[in-house]
Amino acid sequence: MKETETGSSDLTPLLADADSLENQSPRGLASVSGAVFNICTTMVGAGIMSIPATVKVLGIIPGFAVMFMIAVLVDITVEFLLRYTQSGKSTTYAGLMAESFGSLGSLAVQICVMVTNLGCLIIYLIIIGDVLCGNESGGTLHLGVLQEWFGIQWWNSRAYVILFVVLFVMLPLVFLPHMNSLRHSSAISILLAVVFIAISSAMAIYAFWKGKTQNMRLLPDFANQVSIFDLFTTVPVLVTGFGFHVNIHPIRSELSRPSDMSYAVRISLAISMAIYFSIGFFGYMLFGESIMSDILVNFDQNSDSAIGQLVNNTVRLSYAMHLALVFPVINFSLRTNIDELLFAKKPVLAKDKSRFTILTCLLLALTYTIAIVIPNIWYLFQFLGSTTVVCLSFIFPGAIVLRDVHGISRRKDKVMAILVIIMAILTSMIAIATNLWTVG
């Protein structure tokens, strides 16, 4: 683990422990509201785009029930991590696993964080590309906003547009060295998500008033479209939407009182649940069975007037900007984990400008390159949710409780940890097997 230089008062990522933060002046440290914004931003990223597609598969009642269950389990596992962080000496997720399982535990967390966060960043760029440059699925061409405005040109192709966004929107934000520095952009991103929900809901209500809404199923359609195994493929998508465990420690370390983290987590989960419930219900009402894995793509074919098209474009652009503002929050923990893995004995990353700059630019270049190659987000969501995200969100926290190196686990904690681990493993195995069978 990296440590501060003696007497240093600067807050840098992954360097100050909880005791030192408790004794510092609150000036310049993160507030609970700032932590809530950053946690919500971590959750309400690209995952919201696939929520209506999961509701289509599950049906409204099971869909909302599964969302609520996952939110409750996430709250439990976050509490596990916070309790062991308070009792131990580590201030990072990898360090927490190292206390319980040694260097292999730390390495497992770092690999999962890197795969998960890199996958999420790729997903964000794919969605932004879909919004601005369009997408083709099942033989149907969905035009992007720029193509609708200017026609199909060489300069509004996916490669050029995403490159422009990366250089002029994301690059300045990812160069900010502290998580708390992103609180304002995170607040704006949540506001944009709320705008997206409000407009989508208004469109669905208006369509309902005009009798143009789609048929909605309360339960899965086992008779025609859905098998029992298909239901399990939706769980990883929802798990990915609620996964924010990788940013627990960076956000907690910058709070003036780290003990407030539990409070911030519960507020964030409540806000995210409200957002997911809203977009799941109204998105399904608006598009029905025609919902694509990225609901933003559907908005290019849902208007028959200039005003309707303006509303559609506003929806798509607002959420594309939201994802651009979420990007640096996810990039933060990705960068720090890679640095912790590769340069454990080097000075703190925020104090080494050359290493910070090189690592940041390399990550952006890698993310951009892969986003240009991969066209579909649904399979990425399922892969991440079935593997690395489920490990970070459920399996690793449960394993820490069962290992109980600090002797603080109660019997009910261990029982819950066993149940969470078993459920996570079974669900992931069925989801992976179903996807492989479908692809095959």
Automatic annotation (TrEMBL):
It is found in: Membrane. Its main location: membrane. It is a multi-pass membrane protein. It comes from the Eukaryota. Keywords: Amino-acid transport, Membrane, Transmembrane, Transmembrane helix, Transport. PANTHER family: AMINO ACID TRANSPORTER (PTHR22950), AMINO ACID TRANSPORTER AVT6C-LIKE (PTHR22950:SF289). InterPro entries: AA_transpt_TM (IPR013057). This is Amino acid transporter transmembrane domain-containing protein. The chain crosses the membrane at residues 29-51, 57-82, 103-127, 159-176, 188-208, 228-246, 267-287, 355-374, 380-403, 415-437. Residues 31-431 form the Amino acid transporter transmembrane domain. GO terms for cellular component: organelle membrane. GO terms for molecular function: L-amino acid transmembrane transporter activity. It comes from Gossypium schwendimanii.
